[in-house]
Amino acid sequence: MFSARMFRFVLFVFSSLLVNSIVVAEHIGVNGGVIAVKLPIGATEAKFNDENQLMVRGHAIIAIPHEAEAKGHKLIVSFEDGSFQAIDFKVQSKEYEEQHITIKNQDYVTPPEETIKRRQEEAAMMRKAYARRSPATDDILPIVIPVEGQITGVFGTKRFFNGEQRNYHTGVDYAAPTGTPISAPAPGTVVVTHDMYFNGKTVVIDHGAGFISVMCHLDKIEVEKDSELKRGDVIGTVGSTGRSTGPHLHWTISLQGTKIDPEMFMQVVNGLDDSTDN
Ligand SMILES: [Zn+2]
User: Fold this and answer.
1) Most exposed residue of 62, 185, 219, 264, measured as fewest CB within 10 angstroms of its CB?
2) How many A from CA of 9 to the centre of ligand 1?
3) 45 CB neighbour count, 10 Å cutoff
4) Are both 79 and 169 inside the same structural domain?
5) How far is the CA of 202 from the centre of ligand 1 (A)?
6) CATH number of the CATH domain containing 170
7) Confidence category of residue 263, pLDDT binned at 50, 70, 90
8) From ligand 1's centre to the CA of 76, what distance in Å?
């Protein structure tokens, strides 16, 4: 028979198990999103998808591809002494909504033959930009919204132009009057300035460690390739160049070649506490 003392002990064991199951952090993200995972002390790198993930304030910022499978994944953390540790995280499937857009100029839905070479060159230019892996920037936080405007398009939506399905929406859209200044969301280097077929006048900023911003549909580009930017420096103005239905800024963020939701990214990284440095 249980004594009262024994009973209290059993109760203690069960309640601490319960507490543990609540306290132990489970890392859960969604396809197209990011999650911050606190790294053990002494971690030098954190790899997912064979890529070193961005490291900010003692955390790895895991970039989860839009097409990632809903299942368990591993972040591989390496240490100075050459040892490794795997940290489990889960991806849950996020259903993105549909967005139907009507474009007057059918050339932006089915581009004419003679634009193939131009579009291929521009695609190659973008691939090269996304492949950049510059050294990390120290002063990366906070990431600031690059323009004052209304969000009119969120990341990840399945998009249909004049009824035809095209690529998912790879960034966030901010509607603002033509001429509204656009600023650098974080320090970086301008690596591309180009007038592109779909993206219109475009500025690509390399923020270091594979963190790349792409700003599209500008009216005017006010920086040059290789310009060094501080956070808040003006790079150009809002316009409606390329495949666009009205003046807005389209902002894509790529982390090591994976395009992720800029709104979620800002929320996650800007919320990281300084005191968590290790
Ligand atoms: Zn857009």
Assistant:
1) 219
2) 59
3) 15
4) no
5) 12
6) 2.70.70.10
7) very high
8) 33
**Can you tell me the distance from the alpha carbon of 257 to that of 255, in angstroms, rounded to the nearest whole number?**
5
CA of 170 to the centre of ligand 1 (A): 7
What's the CA-to-centroid distance between 178 and ligand 1, angstroms? 16
pLDDT tens per residue across span 83-127: 999 999 999 999 999 989 888 888 888 888 899 999 999 999 999
Ligand 1 centroid from CA 106, angstroms: 18
Q: How far is the CA of 199 from the centre of ligand 1 (A)?
A: 9
The answer to whether 184 and 214 are in contact (CB under 8 A) is no
- For residues 28 and 138, membership in a common domain is answered with no
d(CA 31, CA 69): 7
- Boundary-marking domain end, from 94, 117, 136: 94
* Centroid of ligand 1 to alpha carbon of 115 (angstroms): 21
Length of the chain in residues, anyone? 278
pLDDT digits (tens, 9 = 90+) for 5-36: 766 666 655 555 554 444 456 899 999 999 99
Domain encompassing residue 106: 98-268
Residue 261 CA to ligand 1 center (angstroms) comes to 12
Ligand 1 centroid distance, CA of 156 (Å): 10
Strands 188-196 and 211-221: unpaired
Please report the pLDDT score of residue 172 as a whole number: 98
**pLDDT band at residue 167 using 50, 70 and 90 as cut-offs:** confident
For the chain, the domain total comes to 2
C-alpha of residue 171 to centroid of ligand 1, in Å: 6
Closest CA to 212 of 173, 264, 250, 253: 253
Choosing from 94, 118, 143, the residue where a domain stops is: 94
In this structure, the strands spanning 84-92 and 28-30 are: parallel
Same-domain pairing of 41 and 145: no
